[in-house]
Amino acid sequence: GGVGCVVWDAALVLAKFLETGACPLARRAVLELGAGTGAVGIMAATLGANVTVTDLEELQELLMVNIENNKHLVTGSVRAKVLKWGEDVTEFQPPPDYILMADCIYYEESLEPLLKTLKDLTGPDTCVLCCYEQRTMGKNPEIERRYFELLQMDFELEKIPLDKHDEEYRSEDIHIVNIHRKQ
Q1: Does some domain include residue 14?
Q2: Which residues form the signal peptide (predicted)?
Q3: Is there a domain that residue 108 lies in?
Q4: Any idea what the CATH number is for the domain that residue 106 is in?
Q5: CB within 8 Å of 115: residues ≥ 6 apart
Q6: Which among 62, 85, 117, 135 is placed 20 to 30 Å from 111, CA to CA?
Q7: Distance of CA 157 to the CA centre of its chain
Q8: What is the pLDDT of residues 51-71, one digit of tens each?
Q9: Is residue 4 a part of any domain in this protein?
């Protein structure tokens, strides 16, 4: 099933970071972009958030199965919806309290649509948590550099220090960045 059917290390790190309680999620509106298996969004829902996990049409069935298999753990709510980056986000308004992203920065072609979607979805109070594994092979470093360069035109970034990550689920090459709209 491709990249969307894998629980990437960055998803585990972000899910476990949420579990530390660093971000109050109870009764908050949360949207996960590029959810894949939905692991991060489902974790947020177990912590009381009202979550919409989003990905392409071909991953909806997997998301539904994973939601169903974990519904006994959910204390908030969780639903799956199709969201293609760069397209209309009207149905996802008003802006959520949190947007979660794990390992969404790897295709050069998707950078601009992803950034457009982030701009369209965020309000002044939306907190975006972007977790990614720093990769050193091929075009990855260049794509990452470009992403953060473009992102900083409209957003402020703050790296969450490693010692704030979950004690067991952390790695020197996996970063969590807290992102807010520039005022």
Answers
A1: yes
A2: none
A3: yes
A4: 3.40.50.150
A5: 147, 150, 151, 154
A6: 62
A7: 15
A8: 999 999 999 999 999 999 999
A9: no
